[in-house]
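Re: [ENG-882] Designed sequences occasionally contain unexpected residues at chain ends

Forwarding the minimal case from QA. Structure tokens:
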């Protein structure tokens, strides 16, 4: 599960250091599968796409979310293929938690530069069981350490980063719509209304899952992952 949230001064270097220090001593897991890690990763990505495409078919809102995705998704997938190239995939299972975090941060910041969003960095934190990521529009996104600790959750780490990056784009488009001429004013207005009345899912998960900004972020992540699969031949 990913989420939007609001806190004060989240861009502070002090808070960033405190969150990272809380994870001091947390070690990454080794990959213990029988297949090569790259093969297992490719299977996980394709399984994700099968599930998400089935969901697409039952959601008319997906058409609106795909309205302007092609150019953005192509740029994001190019960065993803650059940062998470064949060599990185081969090395991922042996990387430390810090090394994995650095790769995810590199991906998010480079993607942000390509998409024209305020991507300051990725903060790895303990978000609690079941919450993979969070975004507050500050330029930083928060990713739970568990999906980096386990190498077999790389597909979820990438999906979460893409999902939260899209939330950052939503915040940026609301604040500066002139920077996103490809996004219709009506869609930006829908995002703004949704964020003002954001449903955290505390009482109704389906309402959370199907609200406009969540559908849009989910579709964007899937479009990027599909393009990445094709580029990498996974």
């Amino acid at each position: 599960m990913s989420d939007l949230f609001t806190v004060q001064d989240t861009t502070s270097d002090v808070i960033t250091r405190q969150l990272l220090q809380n994870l001091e001593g947390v070690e990454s897991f080794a990959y213990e599968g029988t297949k090569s890690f790259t093969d297992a990763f490719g299977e996980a990505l394709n399984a994700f796409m099968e599930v998400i495409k089935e969901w697409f078919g039952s959601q008319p809102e997906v058409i609106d979310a795909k309205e302007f995705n092609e150019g953005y998704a192509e740029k994001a997938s190019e960065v993803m293929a650059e940062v998470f190239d064949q060599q990185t995939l081969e090395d991922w299972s042996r990387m430390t938690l810090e090394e994995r975090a650095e790769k995810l941060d590199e991906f998010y910041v480079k993607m942000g530069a390509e998409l024209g969003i305020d991507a300051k960095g990725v903060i790895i934190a303990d978000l609690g069981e079941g919450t993979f990521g969070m975004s507050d529009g500050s330029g930083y996104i928060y990713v739970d350490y568990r999906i980096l600790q386990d190498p077999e959750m790389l597909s979820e780490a990438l999906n979460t980063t893409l999902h939260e990056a899209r939330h950052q784009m939503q915040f940026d488009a609301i604040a500066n719509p002139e920077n996103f001429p490809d996004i219709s004013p009506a869609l930006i207005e829908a995002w703004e209304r949704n964020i003002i009345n954001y449903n955290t899912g505390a009482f109704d998960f389906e309402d959370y899952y199907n609200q406009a900004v969540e559908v849009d972020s989910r579709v964007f992540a899937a479009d990027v992952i599909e393009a990445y699969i094709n580029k990498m031949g996974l």
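QA comment: On inspection the terminal residues look reasonable. Strands lie at 2-4, 121-125, 133-135, 140-144. Proposing we downgrade this to a documentation issue.
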